[in-house]
User: Which sequence fits this backbone?
């Protein structure tokens, strides 16, 4: 019998309809008027067709004592959060690899605030993600905790919930991607910040407290748009990727997810011989390292994280012949590629992320070393730079080091796992040069006595240039390889082949007590 003739089925359909955009037309119109999408529009765009199994769709806010039930069904649909299980990128990676848990905050329901049943739904889906080892994609737009759930009479502060505990505990167990558009304050911001990868639109404001909490704490009166705008949160590293809008953010999330889902069968790449001319013959000239990355990687596969934070080191994902991997690279157009405190933090966190989810790492190194000096020390350089050694030395995934040009001092060692021999393979382009420190400084320091003994300034400079030339000759990549400090010097056009062959020869990642090492954010 058709459900339209059965009263019980007709009643169910009517009840479910109140959670959908067609019935919630007013809420939908408000979202569209702001240029935003509804929660269910984001959901539909994210997951594969007909794959979503929803949990807790019939929940409403715990406010039956203060509002009519039908009003709650429409205006507090799903208690402000859509949760369930679906597949993402199924056509590319197959059914098993594409399974994921999904959480979509609905700002049209009480400003996306977190209520009693809302948290029960969140706890349920996160516990399933933990038990079933499902990656999680979460849209976080919302205003934090909700004080108006009057039906709850058996709780005081509600701080015994497990949502934040389980979400944080998933770190290193399953990939977690957070997407934000609009306001994201308090508890919502805590969820956003705990994610492995954070994506936010340009129309995002993210803060650990919203205006009401700030004012209530006696800290002043602020507009929502004055708290954590995207410019601030991108520059300080809170946001990994800035998206243009929700559609772009969703596409980026699907692309991010793909790096953790496996290999792609089809790929293309640029002419690799172009790499031969990308490092200038003049060693003092800078060059755009992203051009090298995009040429080396499969076309369209490079996805950079945190480009506005720690600019001296580029971090991101690439594919080589469809295989996903992490990438580190020094950017010589910022502080000559020296590893400063911010970029050390950024690189350390990225190494741990790759290690937690078994992505091999390629390091394109061209650095004069760690950034030094009194100003650098004010940024806690000793602690933050040392952290990169700890993260890299404890990585269990293979690291391939490719020295594009300079490999100087401790900074170069940290870029490739803590030692040139911590890699499964270390190779240099012919432009490579090496030293325990920058060669200019090494000459001035090591030959200070000889230089000071020359009274004539012109003659002293002539001696300095002679000694520097000798240091350059000794530090050439071919000499470093001849002394077995690196494994090889290669034709830049062969870099892809060298990396893939090195990775194919490497063993599987080591295990820690039979379990993968857990990802703990370094910040």
Assistant:
């Amino acid at each position: 019998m058709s459900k339209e003739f059965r009263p019980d089925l007709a009643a169910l359909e009517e009840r479910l309809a109140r959670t959908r955009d067609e019935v919630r037309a007013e809420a939908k119109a408000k979202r569209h008027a702001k240029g935003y999408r509804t929660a269910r529009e984001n959901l539909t765009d994210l997951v594969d067709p007909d794959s979503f199994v929803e949990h807790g769709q019939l929940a409403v806010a715990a406010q039956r004592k203060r509002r009519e039930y039908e009003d709650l069904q429409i205006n507090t649909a799903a208690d402000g959060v859509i949760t369930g299980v679906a597949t993402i990128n199924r056509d590319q990676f197959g059914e098993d690899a594409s399974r994921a848990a999904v959480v979509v905050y609905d700002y049209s329901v009480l400003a996306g605030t977190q209520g009693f049943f809302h948290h029960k739904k969140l706890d349920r889906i996160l516990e399933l993600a933990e038990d079933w080892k499902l990656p999680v994609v979460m849209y976080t737009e919302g205003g934090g905790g909700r004080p108006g759930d009057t039906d709850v009479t058996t709780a005081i502060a509600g701080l015994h919930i497990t949502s934040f505990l389980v979400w944080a505990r998933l770190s290193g167990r399953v990939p977690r991607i957070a997407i934000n558009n609009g306001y994201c304050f308090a508890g919502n911001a805590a969820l956003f910040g705990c994610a492995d990868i954070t994506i936010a639109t340009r129309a995002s404001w993210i803060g650990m407290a919203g205006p009401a909490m700030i004012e209530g704490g006696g800290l002043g009166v602020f507009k929502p748009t004055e708290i954590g705008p995207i410019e601030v949160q991108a520059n300080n590293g809170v946001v990994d990727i800035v998206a243009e809008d929700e559609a772009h953010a969703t596409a980026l999330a699907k692309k991010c997810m793909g790096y953790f889902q496996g290999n792609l069968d089809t790929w293309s790449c640029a002419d690799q011989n172009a790499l031969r001319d990308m490092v200038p013959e003049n060693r003092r000239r800078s060059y755009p390292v992203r051009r090298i990355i995009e040429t080396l990687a499969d076309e369209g596969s490079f996805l950079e994280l945190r480009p506005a934070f720690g600019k001296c080191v580029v971090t991101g994902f690439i594919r080589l012949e469809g295989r996903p991997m992490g990438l580190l690279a020094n950017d010589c157009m910022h502080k000559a590629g020296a590893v400063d405190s911010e970029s050390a933090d950024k690189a350390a966190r990225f190494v741990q992320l790759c290690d937690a989810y078994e992505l091999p790492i390629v390091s394109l190194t061209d650095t004069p070393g760690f950034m030094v000096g009194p100003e650098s020390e004010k940024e806690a350089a000793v602690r933050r730079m040392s952290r990169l050694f700890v993260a890299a030395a404890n990585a269990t995934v293979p690291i391939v080091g490719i020295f594009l040009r300079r490999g100087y001092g401790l900074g170069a060692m940290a870029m490739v796992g803590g030692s040139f021999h911590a890699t499964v393979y270390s190779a240099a382009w012919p432009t490579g040069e090496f030293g325990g420190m920058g060669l200019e400084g090494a000459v001035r320091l090591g030959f200070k006595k000889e230089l000071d003994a020359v009274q004539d300034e012109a003659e002293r400079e002539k001696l300095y240039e002679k000694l520097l030339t000798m240091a350059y000759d000794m530090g050439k990549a071919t000499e470093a390889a001849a002394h077995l400090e690196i494994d090889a010097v290669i034709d830049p056009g062969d870099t892809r082949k060298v990396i893939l062959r090195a990775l194919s020869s490497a063993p599987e990642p080591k295990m820690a007590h039979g379990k993968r090492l857990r990802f703990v954010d370094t910040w």
